Amino acid sequence: MATNAPQVIPDLIANLVKGEGGEPVRRDAGLGLLRRQLGRIQGEVQRAFEAQQLTGLAAARWLAALNDGLLHAILAYAQALNPPKSAAEAAEPPFALVATGGYGRGVLAPFSDIDLLFLSDRPLGARGRRVVEAMLYLLWDIGQKVGHATRSIDECLEDAAGDVTVQTALLDARFLFGERAIFERFDARFAEWRKGTGFDPFLHAKRAERQARHQRYGDSPFLVEPHIKEGRGGLRDIQTLHWLARYAFGIRRLGELVGPASPGGGLLTVHEERAIHRAWDFLWTVRFHLHYGAGRAEERLTFDMQPVIGARMGYTRHGRQDGVERFMKHLFLTVRDVVRLYRLLEPAIVRAALGPVAVVPPSDPALAAAGFALADGKLILAPNRSFSDEPVLMLRIIRAARDRGLELHPLALRALIRSTRYANRLRGQAEANAAFLDILLGKDPARWLRVLNEAGFLSRFMPDWARITGLMQFDTYHVFTVDEHTIEAISVLRQLENGELNEVAPVASEIAPQLDSRRALHVATLLHDIAKGRGGDHSELGARIAQDLCPTLGLTAEETETVSWLVLHHLLISQTAFKRDIEDPKTILDIADLVQSPERLKLLMVLTVSDMRAVGPKVWNGWKATLLRELYWRVAEVLAGGLSVPERDVRVRRARQAVAALLADRPQEEVDRFLGLGYPGYWLSFDAETHARHAALIREAQLNKAPLTVRTRVLESRAVTEVLVYAADHPGVFSRIAGALAVAGASIVDARIHTMTDGMALDTFWVQDASGRVFEQPHRLARLSVLIEQALSGRLKLEQEIAKVRREPARLRAVTVPPRVVIDNHASSSHTVIEVNGRDRPGLLHDVTAAISEQGVQIASAHITTYGVRAVDVFYVKDLFGLKIENERRLASLRARLLAALAPPEPEGGVAVPVRRQKNAA
User: Fold this and answer.
1) What keywords were assigned to this record (predicted)?
2) Crossing angle, helix 56-81 and helix 27-50, to 10 degrees?
3) Would you state the pLDDT for residue 920?
4) Most distant CA pair in the chain: distance in Å?
5) For 700, which of 14, 79, 87, 717 is 20 to 30 Å away at the CA?
């Protein structure tokens, strides 16, 4: 069905140009004919493609060929509309209509531009310029996007000399219509010009262009919202290989590089050429679906489009893996193949074009004895050595390059990629294990692990690694695929050991260099997500995999047990810090009982920081660092036999004594009055300095008889803003304040709710802005205070105002978060703990807390965490009598009401429900 040959449309031309005299129809009638023909072309290709009669590449070629025919008709019509006005115009030299760019390669995406060159031997005359102008206006008027240039052959070569973009466009030049002899003269002269200019300048320009493109669109091929066209491993990288080969050898397609008689003597094998074609075809298929699905020239595969494209391409759920995850894994494996093929083919093209490298023995005798040499100052295999005969050389060359500060020569990378299938011989081999662990624990491990991963070595060396290669999780929390995230975690771990993160993670940076179990920690970081994508708890499954895998890597029984334990509990610290009340003694004691060892606590802390910072640039912030640090020191003190969790009454007494000492300059009656205001839970929730600030605020409010006091304080070190609200307690206070904060654009990360003995509420919220930074602009802080006052007085229509801010980018709407409510009566000795999971939205906390209070439940504290679009909110609650909620019927009612609150709101919003609050009784 598809062809690259121009398809002439004689009937259309006959309808546009009537009779033997070539009389054109009126322009408006002609436009109607052309628009209908363009619609038929686009519709015919789309129907065939979506019926799976065509792959993406075949559809792109057919669409280009059909467009060729349309252009032929437009050219004939433009010429008829502009007959010669004089004998001189009739004698004007002809021109050639040439396709350039992607269209010149004979492929066209549904909504892409078409690039045209009007080529002549010398500058066009008056009629020629009118014909060109008429063609362009006709194309624009029927809705085509056109890039165009009008040049003579000399002008083409002159412009090419100063602009690599022009050189590249001309490389793809393809004759369409007009005077073929002109195009052939250009083609010959351009080939001679390339030969005279040399390959090296073009190579350097393309390398710089590729590097800049990757920096702009993502230097990792494993970003979870990839750019299909411009990203690393995308269509543009394959096109760049085509340009390099075309410039160097004059070929039209990469398949011409196969076989000993081909240019360069066989730079590609049949298998590699097929792999390039498969990747090219798959990416074009994705691109076509993306254009049709978006209804425009969309090249970025965003979250909202991923399930759409996956479904269009027939990916369905298989086992425990969703169709969209299967589709994205296929995409990432394809992208990785493109990266590998680029590294394989580019150096071969370069060497064939510029001549063989001069391989010289290294000055280091040990390096020469190991089987390596130097070429262009980079490390390469010695002429008499091969990876296939000695697979361990694949690890040795990485280690040698690292130790001597050398780069791998591109030809060495080429040989490595072609030989990774021999890595399975190294499993369990002592020398290979030692070399691999040395790479993992040595200098810049992430750099070399990425080389091994992209080459395909890791998947062969550790079969379990292949399961996570290219695996993405369909959420907005993780930025990378699982394998890339893991390597990034190794990079963060090394930064912690080097002291490069002292400012952002001081505790982990301090303890990382002191660890005795360094090998176990690095291997645990490598394996912490090894079981993702298998269904079930990836921590438990990963722990079992670690028990089997670690001995084959050469770890001792004790190291294996440590690695397995770390993988099993690698989420313990973060989940506790962000989901539990670390002021609750049971929280600290439970972790201490599980960890038992100070060394294991240190290992967990460093692994936690490495894991979190590797998720993405927006995940880590000062507030999370503070919570982790406080949890670590409290558990460490317990493990050291300290008194961080003494008896409750003792801790309360000490807290009251500490604040009394700070208030020693105040009248004793005033101090006693303040000390009588707080229930035990209040005294255990803050340090003495904070209690003193509260005392000053309460005294000022009482003197001024203020019904409401709002104070804000920016805490730069914690990357949060503290919002303190002191007001008369009444049902609905917490929910209304949460709603006001949502309207103000503040995101709550933690909260403490306290009702004093005199019935006043003292609530503390820690907030950030929507991007996870400090909420600090003066005008926003002032508005926040006003909104709280309006919400508590009833003058702010919360439901209507929250509805106005419930907007999110379309690309995020496709990510679903099933609502989930977990009620736990064992996590705390004094409270029922409610964990709510759902899709985050402005006002969610308002809705959830309203639902809790509707059930007659008092909230003691709230712990708010978001993972992308997933909200995980945890509440410590009691009933109206200050007891845990243990009645099953009541718990079922509470769960049902919370699930209803997590459901997407109606357009007009819900009705606020009054919130009762906790009196922090002993």
Assistant:
1) Hydrolase, Magnesium, Multifunctional enzyme, Nucleotidyltransferase, Repeat, Transferase
2) 170
3) 34
4) 114
5) 717
